[in-house]
Design brief:
Length: 142
Amino acid sequence: MEFVESIKEAYKRTFDFTGKTGRSEFWWFKLYFWGGVLIWSIIDYLLFGFTIWDPYSEFGWLGALWIILNLLPYFSINNRRLLDTGKGNWKIKPPWLLPIIFIFLQILLVLFIIIGWIILWIWWSEETFEDDPEKKPIGIPQ
């Protein structure tokens, strides 16, 4: 299968988690996906000169947008390739379950981060504790 055919087929079968995918289609789409991440990251750096994550990140807003827009076809082609090799077990599960699992895990991660920040704010707001009266900071009643 050629490059352009592979990309078209991957987008046509975005919501198909139960079929099979050949090696050429799989690897052409991988090249397309990661090549797009690289190209959009370079464009993002040239246009904006910054990244959204941290100074050591390889992609910014455009790279992140590229990944978000291509995430579902990426997951579906990975699953179809596993089925083609006989390693996937999604035949017995509903095809819409995989994206829901990823959304659920992302929500859990965000909740853990929010709970962690709440705990830190509570700890940061507590009074200074010192047993020895000589070492108490100025301003705390003796």
